[in-house]
Automatic annotation (TrEMBL):
Protein name: Mevalonate kinase
Single GO MF descriptor: mevalonate kinase activity
Keyword Lipid biosynthesis: yes
Catalytic activity: (R)-mevalonate + ATP = (R)-5-phosphomevalonate + ADP + H(+)
Length: 397
């Protein structure tokens, strides 16, 4: 581990099409957002692991020998290809003093951290004494993949601390990325973190957090999109809280209850992702308005499907109605049930029209902002390049 520690970051994501269906083996199209989660890891003292997670109100530390003893006692097989076992998660809850039924943001964040420490150290050697601080530009639990960005940062930092991946940052460089092979390892451990938080994730969010850009994801297969035009997207946070884990479980229940009704809906969502990919890849880099009606119609159809599978919310219906009154098309993004929606802005949508839509959305109590997409994936930063931000976060710890 570098003497002075390290700072890593990973982006959140927007799913254009395929949320939920992707959990059931269908394709999803997702893009990395220009909003990121950051993690600063420094050598710590006194044989302890210390974490500060201001986003979820956590400041905790544990003695390393206690965690090592638990690992020995459990004697589990911590392979990144195997889902975390219920027995290990129960034992970790007990170790951290988390009640068995707890599923709040703080409990899940601690559990993901401890699981990754335990599993990564079982495979690559002990995680040294460290102080970790995580902060984020992403809202938590709003459909923008904050859980995956957190898990990707943890995976990169812990693998680095154990010496399982290199330090790609050369003297004088501000940022660096890991090799393909190292990113594949980061991605697979981040998926384990997502499994702790989500229960049954598809892996699309951690793939975007790791690789960045725009990609198609299906059953663990990641394909960067050939060409993605510059898309203008308005993001709106309804601020209605929800849990991805609960929503994903609800969809599964509906599919089991009505397979003949729900499976065709998932097939249709899959076809929407295929169609959208073909349209995007056929569009020029700076598209003109005539390319948009199909994209808009696909948004509308998918939003209806997402309501059918039970992940809509009155706040999202309202969001769609408000933007429709300005001639704009929206759908939920991520797990739904509240959280965020995305609105497609056309190249000829005037700044005045965007402002008017934003005003009406804010009047509903929503928060919205235009955003960049296609951001880089997991990145190592020189701490000097982030000095002000890092110093601010560290001064709080
Ligand atoms: N910055 C963060 N620090 C600690 N935990 C985080 C952070 N961001 C997300 N999480 C974890 O991820 C959970 C939210 O994940 P999820 O319900 O999937 O919503 P989303 O991924 O859409 O934001 C939180 O409850 C928390 O456990
Ligand atoms: C609903 C789902 O497709 C995306 C969840 O995204 P988020 O956690 O709401 O950002 C679940 C998954 O793909 O694991
Ligand atoms: Mg999530």
């Amino acid at each position: 581990m570098a003497e002075r520690g390290l700072v890593v970051s990973a982006p959140g994501k927007v799913i254009l099409h395929g949320e939920h269906a992707v959990v059931h083996g269908k394709a999803a199209l997702a893009v990395a957002l220009g909003l990121r989660t950051f993690l600063c890891l420094r050598p710590g003292g006194e044989g302890r692991l210390r974490v500060r997670l201001p986003g979820v109100g956590v400041l905790r530390s544990w003695e390393r020998p206690g965690l090592s003893a638990l690992r020995e006692q459990l004697g589990a097989d911590f392979d990144e290809s195997k889902p975390p076992s219920a027995e290990v998660l129960e034992a970790l809850k007990e170790f951290a003093g988390i009640p068995a039924e707890a599923s709040g943001p703080d409990s899940l964040a601690i559990l993901a951290f401890l699981y990754m420490c335990l599993a990564i150290s079982a495979k690559y050697g002990d995680v040294p004494s460290v102080d970790i601080v995580v902060w984020s530009e992403l809202p938590t639990g709003a459909g923008l993949g904050s859980s995956a960005a957190y898990a990707v940062c943890l995976a990169a930092a812990l693998l680095h601390a154990c010496g399982a991946i290199s330090c790609p940052l050369k003297d004088g460089e501000i940022t660096a990325r890991w090799t393909e092979e190292e990113m594949t390892l980061i991605n697979s451990w981040a998926f384990q973190g997502e499994r702790v938080i989500h229960g049954n994730p598809s892996g699309v969010d951690n793939a975007v957090g790791t690789w960045g850009g725009a990609l198609r994801y299906q059953s663990g297969k990641i394909k960067a999109l050939k060409r993605v035009p510059t898309l203008r997207i308005l993001l709106t946070n309804t601020k209605v809280p929800r849990s991805t884990k609960v929503l994903v479980a609800g969809v599964k229940e509906k599919i089991l209850k009505f397979p003949a009704i729900m499976n065709p809906v998932l097939d249709s969502i899959d076809a929407i992702s295929q169609e959208c990919q073909s349209v995007l890849e056929a569009m020029p880099a700076n598209p003109s308005p005539e390319h948009y009606p199909v994209l808009e119609e696909l948004f509308d159809i998918n939003q209806h499907h997402l309501n059918v599978i039970g992940v809509g919310h009155p706040s999202l219906d309202r969001l769609c109605r408000v933007t429709a009154s300005h001639g704009l098309h929206s759908k939920l993004t991520g797990a739904g049930g509240g959280g965020c929606g995305i609105t497609l802005l056309r190249p000829d949508t005037t700044p005045q029209a965007v402002e008017a839509a934003k005003r009406d959305l804010c009047a509903c109590g929503f928060e919205c902002w235009e955003t960049d997409i296609g951001a880089p994936g997991v990145t190592l930063h020189s701490s000097s390049s982030l000095k002000a931000q890092v110093l601010h976060e560290l001064s709080e710890s």
